[in-house]
Design a protein that fits this description.
Radius of gyration: 18 Å
Number of strands: 15
Structural class: alpha/beta
Low-confidence stretches: none
Largest sheet: 8 strands, mixed
Order of helices and strands: EHEEEEHEEHEEEEEHEEEH
Distance between the termini: 24 Å
Helix content: 10-25%
CATH topology: Spore Coat Polysaccharide Biosynthesis Protein SpsA, Chain A
Number of helices: 5
Amino acid sequence: MVFIISTLGPTNQYKDQRMFHKTFRMFMNSLLNQTDKNFRLFLACHNLPEMPIDTRLPITFCEANIEGKIDTTLVLADYENIDIFNLDLSTIHFDLKPFDCPMTDMSRKTILASFSAIRYAIRMGVKEFWMLRMDSDDFLGKDIIEQLNKIDTKKFQGIWNRKCHMLDISTDKFGIAIHPYSTTTAAVHFKIDFENKIINLPWHFLAYNHTKLFSRMNDFKIKTKEIDWTMTISCNSGNHISGRPTIQKEGFFKELIPLTPELRDRYGL
């Protein structure tokens, strides 16, 4: 089983609504395109996107607002010490934080989404699973869920990648990027011992800075496997918080390659 955790900013704050809808639809298509359907998406957001959501997509929305307000974010207080086996939400304290930096908001929501995924696992009796983090404007290779579910978790408990594809969806230019650190898509394997009520990793693990994820995995003595071409990062999409430029101005962009039918099929483009 794979739990995908992702986030959206307040949807009415995206500057280019047409491109936001386009990239988010492509994000969902890449999930629906998976060869292995044994996954669930946990999407933390202030408000739901005003667009149709395909009913075939297994999704849990994790609301991060109170009374629809978008100038604050609902944040788990003391999240590192929460008893995740306590399903009584009345005992869990939330704080309201100002919506200040989009990057900070994304981290807070990633924690909320991962917490929701863990609670879902406990409620459904899921003893082990992969938790995969990805941005909501990136597109997952169609065999990644299948690859994760086939990994021998006695050998590897984490996956990450440096090599990925990039797509400028305003021009259809497609290319290769190679990063010196782990990209935004990565996964960690979790195992729950229901009898002793323990979990083998911090449940908020993937909310940390992705550029430091590999070293953090080493800190926790997690055996990792590097997998290339897990995703396509979108450029000029109107649906990202890092203000990505045109594809050839990306810092780690290497070369343009043809956007072949095989690549379109791989990412559900």
